[in-house]
């Protein structure tokens, strides 16, 4: 143990704390004198300096710490531990004191207390959001106490927070296995998880090979909370079947856990289990952190009652893409149930395009009100229903997809207006691009394409004119590609402007954002660039979408690997060698992309007629 107690630890946060002693010495010369005497081996004189400094409140705790360091060097570990604990009572946020206490307990052979001291420090750091600083501590704890349950699960939680989902899976599953040595149900789950993913995660096999037999050390927290963290890590890493296993156990332990039920719905939908997925999706309204308010409106929520001759208010929820994806169900609801009137409420930026597209079908579109507990129109309704509850109420299944291919069409005057927003045709293909979603989205950092890769995207399709459909904070990034990318953002004030432009394009390249759904709803070919994380609507590893026949999916094979997704995009578009002229209208055009030709919009309901009770 050195004078600043950093020599025994390759732990950055502790090394920085050692620098704190040097800084304190610059501000308090007497303290610096004590450090110099201690470093020179003149411990008796150094002790006198630090004893006197304990009377000064601003340096009491560090002085007690240095007295403890000297006591430890002299072999008086018990006295050193008492001094470190005293320093911690005065300054409980100082990492150096925790590690010094842990070191002296280790020298005493008291490994449980050594691990507990460092575990307290690691937990404190994670509470502050310093997850990276906690990782070396957990490795040190597990070297001392390899069966320490809290160290395993907290390490996994920290890695998940740091976005290292694949790495997080290993310690979290080890935590489940340790819990299984106490709880038989968890023992079975641990075996199932290992059987499911160990061949794809050799790091897990390696960790289990060195895990000793015996009961777990430390306090066992609620397993269902660990399983929810494991769910997120497994889902992000692409292990969807394992995710369902973990959540099935979480729901067995706590069947009323709304977050676990919500996450279970997303995993089931990704697997194509729509029956379970849509039923569990309704638990979003029970989860107290769901971003949409649970609205109290002046009409009962529709739960399967006879709607013949009734008036219903369908209100859109969540993001722009969600509303666009599920608007066809409003068609189906009206046609299947013989409604007298249906009003569809949507986010304000979608009002123009959906009002225009749905006017011919007799569906009124209104903007979302400021007060979520009010209708947007001064009228009475027999029922209301959230738009994304319709899949459950209408028993939507994978076999029912696509719903109404190419349902979003614009009148000719809007298509002609979109033509004026573009430069004159050059005879080359016209391709729109969107590389970023709304920054408010919880997964935006993963789903949005880094600017550095945009050049590769532009080069992916030869002999094409590129048009930026990007709006919002990142629209200005198009300037970096001036001359190669036409920036349309000043002309795109609303989704109807974007739709009018897309009607005159040959293709759209987009990340997972509202424009991808808009172009898909219009029947346009879309190259969709996806992060490795699984979003239920795009399935697991699929290159096509059951929702949009003209979508081609280019998915990261590993987290952050956009270059491979771009390489796949280039391969898709290698077939485009013949220049074409952009269509003069949004009438169906022959497409060069692979896959089925988009069907004409149908107004016939395609999902099961029986509503859920």
Automatic annotation (TrEMBL):
SMART domains: TPR
TPR repeats mapped onto the chain: 61-94, 115-148
UniProt-listed InterPro entries: Glyco_trans_9, TPR-like_helical_dom_sf, TPR_rpt
Region (Disordered): 577-613
Record carries keyword rRNA processing: no
Keyword entries, A-Z: TPR repeat, Transferase
Gene Ontology MF term list: glycosyltransferase activity
One Pfam family here: Glyco_transf_9
Keyword Transferase listed: yes
Name listed for the protein in its UniProt record: ADP-heptose:LPS heptosyltransferase
Top-level taxonomy: Bacteria, Pseudomonadati, Pseudomonadota, Alphaproteobacteria, Rhodospirillales
